[in-house]
Amino acid sequence: MQYLVVSPLGESFESSSRIDDLGKEIERKLGYKVSQQHLTIESENISQIRRRRGQDHSIGRIGSTSTPMVEEEPPVKILVNPSWYPSFLDAYMALMRSVFDLILIKSERRFDLVKKWHLKLGTCHPLLKTIVSNAVVPFISNMLLVIFGACLMGVCAQISISLPSSISAVPITGQTFGVLWLGSLTGFVIAPLSILLYLFCGSVLDIPWFSNQTHGNLVLFQSSSSGFLIGFVFSALICGWFCSKMASDRTIMMNLLMLCLSNAVTFVFGCGWLAFGVPNLGLSKGIEKGLVPFLPGETIKISLVLVMIRLSWFVLFQIRKVVLKHLIDHDNANSNISSSVNVEEGQLQIQTSTPMTTINEDGDDNRCLSTCSNISNQ
């Protein structure tokens, strides 16, 4: 029976595997690790097939030369349950595993050295591939995300608008945009690590990528922006936690609530530092100089984050569609080659197992003649 597997992201492929093996095939073709309980068979397809089978299995009349026409059954639609909805990090990791598989396939085709290496490894090659796919590729993918997040924060910090000292000593930057974007996509582990790497490189390694190209420990611990810089870590942590725990039912309103709550954490640290930290302005002045001037800008940045979340999913989905198309084409090509080889072996076996039969001029079978001659000799 043919199955049409459809993921919550709209990715699909046809399969003729057994139901018990569909989880492994989904992991191989889509990169998602899905258990059996996350698969749902569409009931309408089953009822239609049963109804059609009842109509098509009628016996024709005796002596009729025409055989009943049986329609080809459509594939049964199997849905990956929407209660299991991949987060952006899950989809990204699945993409990186698919990219690794595609690179391995391309290298096997182009380089004879890789083929010889695979032959030498023998049975160890599947084990090595599993280790690389499940350990090395996720580690490298996570490190790339952490480095990308730190660089994104450095770029966003350079988008800076200095305010008059009478309004606020803290400039308006794009850093809160970077924090919310990272937290909503990469989760509660990668996003804080990216912020910590950004702070470490700016304070310890003296990379001038804080706002207005500043750097050093004084900026991190003894400036008006210190509370905001430290609050970025906790804001990314909370935003990433919301993203990981609520990825199954997020809507625009849920995203908006998640971003507002996460952004409020940054301003709790920032206003608290202005009120009781180095400037020691008091609570009312801290809120006046640390929150009020930034409200219009934060509204714009949260709106941009909502747009960038959708855009990031779109870009990731387009890349995944191209990569998965190549992988599925490769699987189909291998299945066609194996089926053709099996057919050729079957034909060869039939030809070799069928005895040669020749007819003499009298119309007798030579096998009968040889048998009769053997009997007469006895």
TrEMBL record:
Keyword Membrane attached: yes
Pfam family membership, one: BioY
InterPro entries: BioY
Gene Ontology cellular-component annotations: plasma membrane
GO molecular function: biotin transmembrane transporter activity
Keywords from the UniProt entry: Membrane, Transmembrane, Transmembrane helix
Keyword Transmembrane helix: yes
Transmembrane segments: 143-167, 179-200, 220-244, 256-279, 299-317
Protein name per Swiss-Prot or TrEMBL: Predicted protein
Upper lineage: Eukaryota, Discoba, Heterolobosea, Tetramitia, Eutetramitia
